Amino acid sequence: MALHVHPTISSLKAYSPGKPIVELERELGIREAIKLASNENPWGPSPKALQVLEHASASLHRYPDGGAHDLRQALANKWQVPNEQILVGNGSDEIISLLIKTFLAPGDEAVMADLTFVMYRLSVLGGHGVPVEVPLKNWTHDLSAMIDAVTDRTRLFFICNPNNPTGTMLTGQEIESVLARLPNHVIVVCDEAYYEYVRDAAYPDSVRYVRDGRPVVVLRTFSKIYGLAGLRVGYGITTTEIAGFVNRVRPPFNVNSLAQEAARAALLDDEHVAKSRAMNEAEMAFVEEGLTAMGFTTIPSQANFIYFDVGMDGVAVYEALLRQGVIVRHIRGSMIRVTIGQPTENRRFLEALKHVLPTLSQPAQV
Ligand SMILES: *Cc1c(COP(=O)(O)O)cnc(C)c1O
């Protein structure tokens, strides 16, 4: 077979998601594995979202509303922008690739941190663009260096805030100084997938930048605190101009009908969001304390996960935890990311870690 595959594509390494629970259980022949690897809401979906699904499924023989009118209107009301400034996608992942498809011609550049959400790099390469990756400074975006990396070919500037996987946050002041310094041809993508978890008052009100007419896309998702990762729905808030261009390449039925209905119901469930947020805050403190007590260095997080240094081969720790039925994420080197789960899951994670450490930290046999 002589397939003609562009070298950019053939050299890509496919995105590797957190290991699913059922897969690990099958491999090890165990039950009750826990997954703290994909920053999902451990408390499940909003009950209000579940309620509307049954009714919505009666119309599954119909195509979805291609314009997702009701969902976009609900989001427009919530964020006080006209509904033509709302984009919805099959997860915010899809909006990321749509932005790349819309604005990046082959050879155009997208600036991003060198340790950030992997999908930026993958989607840019998949779109034959050039990811320009700027190393982190103190575990957070090095904004000055990122601005220095901007050229005439730069089309997109990705800011992941809080940053996945480090959990670090940029302040409104920092974002504003970026906006002031960037040339007008660069679109700033503020990926705020963990927006609802942030506790620091210095966090930006990024929708304001959009209202001010800046070339900004604020990305949010129903996959994290809203607990709807399986339905795939995310959204963007941006200028009418940017939304108009993206809509030219957006597939017409990119958000399915169940997702549209469930997301709209979840959006109104303030109680579920508040509970998830409060539980996360309390449990984050617990996990952080546990890790510190074991002597690990943790990076302070504004999201629903903790990035920490195990001080040894992270793959070995990841694999040892898997054998205990605990799925976390190895990021690179000695760094691991763990999602905050329910209290019982967090206790099990800390105990499993305590249990496997002595077997791992012995010096190599000479
Ligand atoms: C989880 C996540 C997303 C998106 O998720 P979708 O499920 O595609 O909405 C986007 N950005 C970051 C930083 C994330 O962590």
Verbal overview:
The chain is α/β, with parallel strands linked by helices. The chain has 2 domains: 7-44 and 271-359, Aspartate Aminotransferase, domain 1 (Alpha-Beta Complex); 47-269, Aspartate Aminotransferase, domain 2. The chain is built from 14 helices and 13 strands. The protein has a 7-stranded mixed β-sheet with strand order 2-8-7-6-5-3-4, with helices on both faces. Strands 9-10-13-12 form a 4-stranded antiparallel β-sheet, with helices on one face. Helix 4 packs parallel to helix 11 (257-267) and helix 12 (270-293) packs parallel to helix 14. It is globular. The structure holds pyridoxal-5'-phosphate. Pyridoxal-5'-phosphate binds next to helix 5. Pyridoxal-5'-phosphate (PLP) binds next to helix 5.
